[in-house]
Amino acid sequence: MVGNAMNGAKILVVDDERLIRWSIREHLAADGFEVVEAATLAEAMSQVHNGVDLVLLDNRLPDGSGLAALPALRLAAPDTIVIMLTATNSVEAAVEAMKAGAWHYLTKPVNLDELAIKIHHALETAHLRREVKTLREVVTAPWGEETIVGQSATIQEVRRLLGKIARTPGSTVLLTGESGTGKDLAAKVVHYNSARATKPFMNITCSALQETLLESELFGHEKGAFTDARTQKRGLLELAAGGSVFLDEIGEMSLGLQSKILRFLEEKTFKRVGGAQDVSIDVRIIAATNRDLQADVAAGRFREDLFYRLRVLPVELPPLRERQGDVPVLVDFFLKRFAQEFKKPVRRVADRAMQALARQAWPGNVRELRNAVERAVLLADTEELTQSDFLLSPARATQPQSQAFVLPDEGLDMDQLQDELVRQALARSAGNQTRAAQLLGLSRDQIRYRLERMAAPIANG
């Protein structure tokens, strides 16, 4: 026997001879592998689509040649390893199989101990390749803390908190905030800056699926668990082993499913749908919601024990209206990104247009602002975007007086616009610089710097 079966990797044995399938299955199952079978190419393709780690593929099958079907199988599952089995012992056949994408080539009758060793080597090699690929993606992917764009005090605090959370071992994270504030981005920042970065990041929107489908997607199911469960399927929790699972809109999850998530969080085990055996897995749960979960707890719509179990590391993403000083920074960020992506000549936003953008309410938050800039860049033919390029709605350009800053429609450049915002914030806060900084979403040091800069011409005069 060979130890460490790569965490119970799933092996598909494709052979039309039942006795061969049985002998291979018994030997590999005793070695800790999960084994499924197929007697035809059609059955094999169905199994592959449900997810397998390695395929033992016979060449001669009732509905075609395994070698001829190999390219299609590799196309359907590029990361799945294939070892060809054949009664023909020839160098030419082996070379042809390797060219078609097979990892190895074995002749029948197969030495089962040798087969197990080859499978372990293949899985270890594939595992290392996936880790290298993931690591390269992490190095090149823009998921650093600086991905959370903005200079306001509130967003700087969010960045600092996300960085600290990423460095914790794996406690549950709860991201709250209005729709469009960037909770999905925050989840990726936590994952890709953690020790789990080379492992999978899986996400699912809890409101997108019915309860039974959502449960199957999360926990997987056993063959025959329900009408369409023709084969066993591993869920996102298993597929994310060692990594993170992002449960978006968790407030929409049913009470029944909430209890199963709670059990997993407390015991780190779960059962597949229709299964009796506990599956133990190590993943970090990052949940997000735009609902008031405390109100849902009081109304009986959300489990109180689950709420506190999720809220080990809470992070609230602020709405854009509470950090309006970040609007120009975000606009500039998205402008450069989309101009490069779409190969457009756009270089800047006109001052009046920027002032209008800063006055918008943005109920859709950063997502709405991003979409507005993307649309403007896509349709632009000049280097400078004007107010008309953004299709701004006058009805939404005014906020309640308690929140809105009143600015002239024209005559101010960006420095003058920022100075005017500081003056109005100080007037509202009766000269309290800390309160003025909060109104603008800035730090007190930023307010002081701005005041010193504003006073400089007078002092020099």
Instruction: Assign the CATH topology of the largest domain.
Output: Rossmann fold
Overall pLDDT: 85
Structural category is alpha/beta
Radius of gyration: 29 Å
Main sheet summary? 5 strands, parallel
Question: How many discrete domains?
Answer: 4
Strand-residue fraction? 5-15%
* CATH structural class of the largest domain: Alpha Beta
Mind telling me which CATH architecture of the largest domain this is?
3-Layer(aba) Sandwich
Helix content: 40-55%
**Order of strands across the biggest sheet?**
2-1-3-6-7
DSSP helix count? Answer: 18
Give start-end ranges of low-pLDDT stretches: 398-403
Distance between the termini: 88 Å
Can you count the beta strands?
18
Shape: elongated
CATH level-4 homologous superfamily of the largest domain: P-loop containing nucleotide triphosphate hydrolases
Commentary on this structure:
This protein is α/β, with parallel strands linked by helices. It is built from 18 helices and 18 strands. Strand 13 and strand 14 form a beta hairpin. Helix 2 runs parallel beside helix 3 (66-76).
Task: Name a few traits of the molecule.
elongated, 4 domains, 18 strands, 15% strand, 461 residues, 5-stranded parallel beta sheet, Helicase, Ruva Protein, domain 3, Rossmann fold, alpha/beta, 46% helix
